[in-house]
Amino acid sequence: MTDLDEVIGRVHREEWARLVATLARRLGDLDVAEEMAAEAFATAVERWPVDGVPPNPGAWLTTTAYRRAVDRLRREVRREERHREALMLFDSPEPLGAIDDDRLRLVFTCCHPALAMEARIALTLRMVGGLTVPEIARAFLVEESAMSRRITRAKTKIKEARIPYGVPLRDDLPARVGGVLAVLYLIFNEGYLASNPAKEPIRAELTAEAIRLTRLVRDLMPDDGETTGLLALMLLTEARRAARVSASGDLVALGEQDRAAWDRALITEGHALVRTRLAAGQAPGRYQILAAINAVHTDAPDIRDTDWSQVVALYDQLVRLDSSPIVRLNRAIAVAELDGPQVALAEIDRLPLAGYHVFHATRAELLRRLGRSEQARAAYDRAVELAGNSGEAAYLVRRRDQLSGAS
Predict the structure, then answer these.
(1) 122-151 burial, b for 16+ CB within 10 Å, e for fewer?
(2) Among 65, 90, 115, which residue terminates a domain?
(3) Would I find Transcription regulation among this entry's keywords (predicted)?
(4) Which residues of the chain have pLDDT under 50?
(5) For residue 361, what are the domain limits?
(6) What DSSP string runs through 295-352?
(7) Is residue 57 domain-resident?
(8) Domain contains 166
(9) Residue at 41 is within a domain
(10) What is the number of structural domains in the chain?
(11) Does any domain span residue 393?
(12) What pLDDT, in 10s, does the model give residues 304-313?
């Protein structure tokens, strides 16, 4: 890969969502916005090797995409009214602020309640998160063709129902924010642990964008506990990023991470947000409990100092809100530290998660601690087979191969 290829790739990661969001607001059509953004990047691939990379790549792409859109409108519709509409693309700048951020507008549009929840999440991951259709299909465990149809139907419904590109009125925010938070958390998780084995194990641009947008939602709703909880959860998770990947590209387990490499500023901010919610005296929701669990982990100077009884108690509280198998799996991981691997294994073996790689990875670690090496090796094999993240797969292979040395 040449230096120019790297530059174009970086600009694509940084500018795609902003460009699509801006075009969607101006053009009122997600399909056209996505097409014009793609054409602008295709033009960049042709022009930048000859003309050089412009000083402001984002502005260059925006101008190029607008010009393409104007040309398209002129070609397709010659009526004077639409012609004036095309010209107004350059003549109607709007002030931007926290509430008027184009990407935040696009998030609320993609998360409109007229769309099914799965369609909202998939569309936002595509349009705002910049994920490919195959990546989103893997996240949903569905075929690529089915996911492509789902996204197309969602875009068509937005157009046909004339769903506005904007942030809802303040009185409507409480009813809309839950779906938005769910999507932002999924975007963050895709950055935290990329599902595509061809991608880097951690996609920092996605975690950064999810945090940025969550901050904007909190600006809109500073008293909403779950918004604050999600921001705290993201910050406390992001704080560990520098220690999560080894020099060889393997993911590093929590107990093996260099805690001196954790971002203390993010941890301090995240802890302050958790304390703010505790002081509010309101029953916490899912994100607030997860943030509190992460606060316990990041408060311990060493893995041996972790207050596992508090972690289990918090998971008990979370299970009352969400008793899904994945929540119970995570609780069992904490139980293993408190009550031992045998107790945890008995709980895990009851969970219907045969297709989930973390289930098999957790079983492998517990079996390893119990000295059942052959069973542990088989569990590692299954976890590696199911893992989509390259760093995670490398870590699991290393752990499996260490069994031979241990035995």
Answers:
(1) bbbbbbbbbbebebbbbbeeeeeeebbebb
(2) 90
(3) yes
(4) 79, 87, 89-99, 407
(5) 354-407
(6) HHHHH-SSGGG--HHHHHHHHHHHHHH---HHHHHHHHHHHHHHH-HHHHHHHHTTS-
(7) yes
(8) no
(9) yes
(10) 2
(11) yes
(12) 999 999 999 9
